[in-house]
Write a structure and sequence with these properties.
Number of strands: 22
Number of helices: 2
Radius of gyration: 19 Å
Largest sheet: 6 strands, antiparallel
Strand content: 35-45%
Order of helices and strands: EEHEEEEEHEEEEEEEEEEEEEEE
Helix content: under 10%
Structural class: mainly beta
Length: 295
């Protein structure tokens, strides 16, 4: 366990608050990162009008990790009041912006979408390659782009039956069944579902940037969200279309002038399959096949 002071300091106006989450590239290495502020007992939250230093709590989980000065481990959003859309507003945004599409670019019917404290997202587990499982290894991950050979750290998961069994206390990279579209005047945030649906963590990173899977003009037919899944004490069977996370959406005060995409150096522009962190060199699809599980 490490507590590390950040280079940045904050001096927020009285009405401003903040919320933090690990960056996607960090979450996909299974590096547990939480923001801390002085004299405030809540992780990943910056209280209204905060002035002072910032710290991160860092716990490597699957891999020992080597970090370098200047690297960003997490990200911070600022807001005033309650920016989140309620379920009625979220249902309207779903229809107006076609927030969810299937693999053929078709809009989901309202009857196929569950909106209850956010949009319920399901996991994609179809025949063939469905994701990755972290190996047990002593090799450290170097937090530099493209220097870690993926085969040393990950096993490919394949399925023939539309389900897989997650091993206890292991880390997985999986993806959503739905392709997500976030227009430039909205930001997204992943939240866990009720433990009644399963004893697992569905994600480390949580922010979904304006323009993700949408572009500037809505010309992109959505992108899969990659999920950073960790099981706890027991094995867990996960099936195609099973609920795994909720998507909350928040309104922006103005449309973002930085739209997620190649023009600003975004790492995960076109995701149609679960994607490893850019710290890893591309994984060969012919890697070791894990056990297959029947329904």
């Amino acid at each position: 366990l490490y507590i590390i002071p950040l280079e940045e300091h904050l001096r927020l106006p009285r009405s401003f608050l903040g919320t933090a989450s690990p960056k996607s590239s960090i979450g996909r290495t299974d590096l547990f990162v939480r923001l801390l502020t002085s004299n405030h007992g809540v992780f990943d939250k910056v209280p209204e009008g905060y002035e002072g230093r910032l710290y991160v709590l860092v716990i490597p989980k699957s891999f020992d990790t080597v970090a370098y000065p200047g690297i960003s481990l997490n990200q911070l959003k600022f807001y005033v009041g309650n920016p989140y859309l309620d379920d009625t507003e979220l249902s309207f945004a779903l229809r107006k912006y076609d927030l969810l599409l299937d693999d053929q670019g078709r809009v989901y019917n309202n009857s196929d979408i569950n909106v209850d404290g956010g949009i319920y997202l399901s996991v994609k587990i179809v025949e063939g390659m469905v994701g990755y499982m972290a190996k047990i290894t002593d090799r450290p991950v170097l937090l530099k782009k493209g220097v870690n050979q993926a085969e040393h750290y990950w096993d490919v998961i394949n399925s023939n039956y539309g389900s897989i069994v997650l091993e206890a206390e292991r880390f997985y990279i999986l993806g959503t069944k739905q392709n997500i579209r976030i227009p430039g005047n909205i930001t997204g945030e992943l939240k866990p579902i009720s433990p009644e649906f399963g004893d697992l963590r569905s994600h480390c990173a949580g922010h979904v940037e304006p323009g993700y899977g949408y572009g500037k003009d809505g010309s992109i037919n959505g992108n899969m969200l990659t999920l950073e899944v960790r099981t706890f004490e027991n094995k867990f069977r996960l099936s195609d279309r099973q609920y795994i996370a909720r998507l909350l959406c928040g309104r922006l005060t103005n449309e973002s002038d930085k739209i997620y995409g190649e023009s600003i150096g975004s790492s995960f522009v076109s995701q149609r399959v679960p994607t490893l962190s850019p710290f890893f060199k591309s994984h060969s699809r012919s890697g070791e096949q894990l056990r297959l599980f029947d329904d």
